[in-house]
Design a protein that fits this description.
- 73% of the residues lie in helices and 0% in strands.
- It is an all-alpha fold.
- It has a single domain, classed as Na+/H+ antiporter like fold (Up-down Bundle), CATH 1.20.1530.
- Helix 2 packs across helix 10 and helix 12 runs antiparallel to helix 13.
Amino acid sequence: MDLFTVTFQAVVTLLIIGVVGFFIVRRKVLPENALGALSNLALDIALPCLVFVNIVSNFSPSETPDWWVLPLWWVVFTGLAAGLTGLFMFVSQRETRREFAMSLFLHNGLFFPLAILTGMFGSSSPYLVSLFLFMLLYPAFLFNIYPYFFGKATKKVNWRRVFNMVFLATLVALAIRFLNVQRYIPDAALTVVSMLGAMTVPLLMLVIGGNLSIDFQKKGTIYSREMVKFVLIKNMAFPLIVFGILVLIRPSYPIALLLLLQSAVPPVTAIALFTERVGGNQSIVNQFLIASFVCSLVSIPVMVSLFSLVFSP
């Protein structure tokens, strides 16, 4: 299959699972108060297991001696995304500008690329390891940066968020590979961890769909103009600008692909939760999320296809 079809199918799969979550909450198959528990299960157990088993099984320090540059490229991308966010946030109306900026900046840098890379290269691809190493610092950054958009940041660093389960799982897995002791891990243990990790994306998409169902029932204001602005910038302007930069600097294929995907994905799935915690407009960020998710059915496959015309493995 061509890249457009593969990428399209990966995005459709995510959206279908989200729709299932929407209706199981809408029809009371799953109670609303269970969504928090499912979210914690995905983020604190399933995701660390997914990261751990992929690094232990597929990462080789000798074959990837420059692995350490991947988190540095994430820093570069984050700086670029911050600059683009600062440039485009003023397109939004004043009343929703903070939500607009936060939704632009906090992107779904793990789960969408994970599904797309799996569809393109398979579930045991070294590109997945590259993704996890690229995103090594993102969870700690994410959980500590979002309050700044609403001026509610505290001076005290939340070390529990810095040393989160995903970060610790990555460090432990890297230590195992560098010490070359992975052969001592029983196959049964890796199988269990792999099965737990496989729940990550389905659980999170179910939670997203369920939260959107709850928000829809509130029947708040529809911000159609703001959604159009957001999609034009997030789904089109961001990836096109990043693609233009990639053509100029010509990094290696794996890094270029990761940077392109990071720029093209919708907002992070927890954006509505973050907005609620800081007292923002949760309804509009959910609308940004939905609009960007739906448009990504076309925008991400188009950008990946355009990328493939210039870059090859």
